[in-house]
Amino acid sequence: MPYTEExxxxxxxxxxxxxxxISLCNSRIPCVLPYGSYDSETRMAVEAFQREYGxxxxxxxxxxxxxxxxxxxxxxxDGAPAAYHVFPSRSFSTAEGDSxxxxxxxxxxxxxxxxxxxxxxKVSVCGEFNDSTAAAVRAFQGFCGLDKSGCVDCATxxxxxxxxxxxx
Length: 168
Known about the structure:
Elements: H1 5-25, H2 40-52, H3 63-78, H4 101-116, H5 131-144, H6 154-167
C-alpha cells in the first residue's frame, strides 16, 4: 500500500511532537512546534538531536534516528520530576472537580506558561480544578503531543515540570 501525503504529514507531526517534548528536557535541542512539514526548522532540530545523542548528523530521520528520538521522548515522559516532588505517584491523576494544594501548584505552573505564551489559556489560582484549568491542561497537553484528557497525570506533570525548568 502506498504511503499517502496525509500519512507522511502525520508522521512528521509526530516527529515534531517528540522533538518538542525532548526540547523541554534538553535545552540543546531546538524547540519545534508539532505540525506536518519537514522544513529547515525540523532538519535543524533533527541534526541537533543526532549530534547530542551520537548519531550520524544528516538531518534526515532514518530508522535509527526515529527509534532513538522515540526512546528519548518516552524517557522524558517517564522521568521523575526534578524540582517539584509533590506529585503523589505514577498512577495518580487529578481532574476537574478536585481541589487542594496540588491544584494550586498546577494552576500556578499553568499560569507561568500562559505568561510566556499567548496561545496558552490563562487560569486563576484558586485551588479548584475547574473548567478553565481543564482547558489550560488540554491546551498544554496538545502542545506537548500528549492525550488531551484535561487531567493531570504523571506524564503531564513531568512535561509541565520540564517545560518550566527549561524556560526558567
